[in-house]
Amino acid sequence: MTPGAPRALAVLCALAATLAIAVACGGSSSRTGTPDFPKVVSLGKGEVFPSIVNQSLAVGPNRVSIRLIDRDDQPVLGAVVHLRFYDLNGYDLNGAKPVFSAEADARFIPVELSYIDEQSPTKERSAAGNDGLYVANTSFSAPGNWGVQIAITGDRDAIDPIPYRFTVLEHTTEPGIGDAAPPSVQQTLATAAVIEEIDSSHPPRPAMHQMTVADAIASGRPTVLAFATPAFCRSRTCAPVMDTVMDPLYATYRDRANFIHIEPYDLRQLRQANVQDAVPATREWKLQSEPWVFVIDRRGRIAARFEGIMAADEVEAALQQTLAP
Predict the structure, then answer these.
(1) Structure pTM?
(2) In the Cβ-directed half-sphere of 262, how many Cα atoms lie within 13 Å?
(3) Ranges of each domain in the chain
(4) For strand 223-227 and strand 162-168, is the pairing parallel, antiparallel, or unpaired?
(5) What is the pLDDT of residues 273-299, one digit of tens each?
(6) Spatial distance between the Cα atoms of 28 and 68, rounded to a whole number of angstroms
């Protein structure tokens, strides 16, 4: 991995492929009535190509994140997107119709990509363009085959609703809502020789490297935990998450909640050998992407989790619930 390099479209597609049974790109579903969800849809006919970028989806509540790409491999930003979710279990075996589950307007969350350029003498922040995801909260009642019909409007010609198939697991690979937070004992300022060993931010954030996750859980206070690498993030969204989510929340809630930042990779290995070696906490939390932000309640359980591009008010709303009497 090249430090600060963007995640290539091929990587995004590979991530989506871990969830998707087939990618549909328009023209395969009517605007009214029950949609079809063909197993294989030609990628050559559509104008917009969706992918679900969640590491995994599972039974129960989920924050579903969808990326839209156009024919030129450019992100489709600022569209109006409506989602209709369908249970497809039994759909392929016995010809039963897709079972409608829920619908929601997706929220578009934009981001100005950036990263800390460690090759610069001053470690200056480098801009890296714009991106965004379409996010909706929904719940899945059973594992197996599911589909979402994606209706897109905006500054473009009319597009037929896009049927997209994906897999729902019994449980996510990473900790899910309601799960006990793994009591990681990561390096802190008390154990690291210098803060640069555990923080690629510039300037560093010493206040977020004071306590271990295990100590935060034992404190009985809510905790906001970020796995992010501002200098080495493949998607270039880690620095924005730290700047626009973690810093403002810390400024407002530091007297009532714990705030922890963990670099997901061994920074020494990255800097010396360009080797992306996960630190023990990343392996304990079973994370395969970055950034992640988890809100942990007073009992040490996961109250909310946010992957990739996120908005500060989403995380703040979850934190406020954990702070309520």
Answers:
(1) 0.88
(2) 27
(3) 9-168, 195-323
(4) unpaired
(5) 999 999 999 999 999 999 999 999 999
(6) 17
